[in-house]
Amino acid sequence: MAWLAEAVLFLLPLLAFATWRRLNPGVEPGRGLLLAAAAGVVLALAALLWFGFSRSLEAGVYVPPHLEDGRMVPGHTERPQADRP
């Protein structure tokens, strides 16, 4: 059922634009709206870049989350065996 919510969220902006075009034929979006949309795209890309660089993993081998003695150990990276003292 989650795929349905994802599909609706994906298609919602397209549906809103199609509805706007249907209700306002021949009317072009204003300059302010285009600038706001461009600013939103730039801010979204900047946020994705910032998040990607702030959450980058250190070099090594990724160990996925697993259970140890009945408790959950989060995923992490470990240095390869050859690098350990």
Overview of this protein structure:
This protein has 85 residues and is of the alpha+beta class. The protein has one domain. The protein has 2 helices and 4 strands; from the N terminus they run ααββββ. The chain has a two-stranded antiparallel sheet. A two-stranded antiparallel ribbon has the order 2-3. β2 (66-68) and β3 form a beta hairpin.
SSE layout:
Blueprint: H1 2-23, H2 31-54, E1 61-63, E2 66-68, E3 71-73, E4 76-78
Antiparallel strand pairs: 1-4, 2-3
| Tally of individual helices | 2
Shape: elongated
Task: Provide the helix percentage.
Answer: 40-55%
Low-confidence stretches: none
Helix/strand structural class = alpha+beta
Mean pLDDT: 87
Q: What would you say about this model in short?
A:
With 85 residues, the chain is an alpha+beta fold. It is built from 2 helices and 4 strands.
Q: Key features?
A:
85 residues; alpha+beta; two-stranded antiparallel sheet; two-stranded antiparallel ribbon; 4 strands; 54% helix; 14% strand; elongated
